[in-house]
Amino acid sequence: DYLRFLAQLVKAQQRAAATVQTATPDAALIAQAQEHSMPLLPAASHIDPAWRGVLDQLVDAVRQAPALPAALAPVLQALRTMPADERDALARRVLVGMLAEPQDLAAAPLVMAALQVSFADRASRLKESDIPYTDPATICPVCGSAPVASVLRIGGREAGLRYLHCGTCGTEWHMVRVKCSHCESTQGIRYQGLQSEDGGQKDEVVLAETCDQCHSYRKIANQEKDPLAEPLADDLATLLLDLLMGETDYARASMNPLLPMSEAEEGAAP
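The structure assignment produced for this chain is given below.
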């Protein structure tokens, strides 16, 4: 049911993306980020006001969706009537993962969906030469968010290369394979996936890349196995793999922005 709800939400995102208009960063900001190897537009401190209009569009679209859960109605009403400053404060809490209050957790998927449209629009307006090389290379060079997953590309010069995928602005940046996307270690990297009853590997499209140094994991989607593999969507579609990884001593390196969890849930033993 939740995945069906998200399917409706991302269709609304697509419609909103055709109307949003965000500001382009100026040359001084770009030069500063490149000089200091820092993200160009750290998300929590560079929220474009256009995101509020996107949120209104998404809320209205979800309201019109069939079989709307009754529990969602007051959340939608609260978001639609929330003052601009409170909306921005909520957006910052969502971006940094401070979701201790139940009402914040319920609103987070819609808020994040609106922010994704806004940040992706702004990232799409950048030239490749505008984007700095960040240190560490494990965060998005555009908005500073953690990658939600990584993807092995197919086709042309990018065939076989691994790219990290930002769950906030959709930017992808290269990181060599067999290297932890969380701590950058090259030692003790392994891949775990779902297996069939006879012990054979069942799903090679999405695997959990584990690191014995920081004891974290992050999923990797292989377009060589499925050309339509998409890191954000396929991460959500493989929650069974997360449940099984929860029985190991590896903790998830970062959460999917469209499946938020409270601080208590994130701090629970894996």
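Interim note for the steering committee: The mean pLDDT is 90. The beta strands are 147-152, 162-166, 172-174, 189-192, 206-211, 216-222, 251-252.
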